[in-house]
Amino acid sequence: MMVRTVKLLALAALTTGVLTAGCSRSEPETEWKPVPAEMPKRESAAPAARPVPPYHASAEAAKPFPELVPAEYFRDYLLVARAYRIAAQIPGVIAQQPCFCYCDKIGHRSLLDCYASDHGAG
Predict the structure, then answer these.
(1) Is the entire prediction scored with pTM above 0.70?
(2) Which of 20, 74, 84, 92 has its CA 20 to 30 A from that of 3?
(3) How many structural domains are present in the chain?
């Protein structure tokens, strides 16, 4: 019993020493300085911006809406199913959003077209 107590005390002392050694600083803490409101401009030229993909100017312009894949198709993927359910609830809003995966190359006219297939899943 006495040996066990000595071992526990030695372990406690060792642990305390390791923990406090990691907390001590050999250098003084530096003064906090606020971050500038504007980031400095980079000298190198920025890459050319890609054009915004197509989207509809209004919900009326998007009609007739494409038939969307039912959310139940993705019942094992709750987040994806929720996105498809929302797209079905507000197709006019989704039709006014561009899809930045640039699927216009395959004929999509807005983000809503992505939800007419499993393309919107991912």
Answers:
(1) no
(2) 20
(3) 1
